[in-house]
């Protein structure tokens, strides 16, 4: 399964203040680092995450290796979501960036105890502003299970349009799940009536 929109997990207190590489009104984005492997592992190991993302939990070593690999990948940007109190509350990324075509995919994972506070929408809006305001993207896409109500709501609130359904596109716990396919185009983003990240 593609892992393009993720809302799940648990959180831990920030051990040290993180340098923010992108700021928005209520959250900042800090570049994901190898030292964040334990935090990412704890989020990915949560049963709710496994269900909503359709993933198989990986070992800490595997998660660390994946982060190390992704750090070297010029076609993606991975961030921790940091609210004003400095506690990482989730993860957001632009992956599969194709500068020629101006396309990328969005990934989002929010810690369970930090849901319902607006962090997911704020982080998604921030990374969308990065894609369209600083990078030459024209089209962003995201996918999530059709029964992942929190992710569906966040995508809609951030201006994404559901294009269709990928039927029985992933297997989880012995059942096939449909994926909702979403997109947001640059002209649609330009018409959104909300402050941009750089206005924060």
Automatic annotation (TrEMBL):
EC number(s) on file: 2.3.-.-
InterPro entries named in the record: Acyl_CoA_acyltransferase, GNAT_dom, Ribosomal_N-acetyltransferase
GO molecular function, one term: acyltransferase activity
Key words of the record: Acyltransferase, Transferase
Chaperone listed as a keyword: no
Domain N-acetyltransferase per the UniProt entry, residue ranges: 27-188
Domain of life: Bacteria
PANTHER family registered for this protein in UniProt: FAMILY ACETYLTRANSFERASE, PUTATIVE (AFU_ORTHOLOGUE AFUA_7G00850)-RELATED, RIBOSOMAL-PROTEIN-SERINE ACETYLTRANSFERASE
Name assigned to this protein: GNAT family N-acetyltransferase
């Amino acid at each position: 399964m593609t892992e393009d929109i993720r809302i799940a997990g648990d959180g831990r207190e920030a051990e040290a203040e993180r340098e923010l590489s992108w700021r928005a009104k209520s959250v900042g984005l800090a570049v994901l680092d190898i030292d964040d492997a334990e935090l990412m592992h704890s989020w990915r190991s949560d049963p709710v995450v496994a269900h909503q993302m359709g993933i198989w939990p990986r070992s800490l070593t595997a998660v660390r290796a994946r982060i190390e690999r992704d750090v070297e990948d010029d076609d993606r940007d991975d961030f921790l979501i940091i609210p004003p109190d400095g506690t990482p509350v989730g993860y957001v990324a632009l992956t599969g960036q194709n500068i020629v075509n101006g396309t990328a995919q969005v990934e989002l994972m929010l810690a369970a105890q930090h849901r319902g506070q607006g962090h997911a929408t704020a982080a998604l809006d921030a990374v969308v502003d990065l894609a369209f305001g600083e990078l030459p993207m024209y089209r962003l896409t995201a996918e999530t299970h059709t029964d992942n109500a929190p992710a569906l709501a966040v995508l809609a609130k951030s201006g994404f349009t559901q294009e269709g359904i990928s039927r029985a596109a992933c297997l989880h716990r012995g059942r096939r799940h449909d994926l909702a396919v979403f997109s947001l185009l640059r002209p649609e983003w330009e018409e959104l009536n909300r402050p941009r990240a750089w206005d924060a």
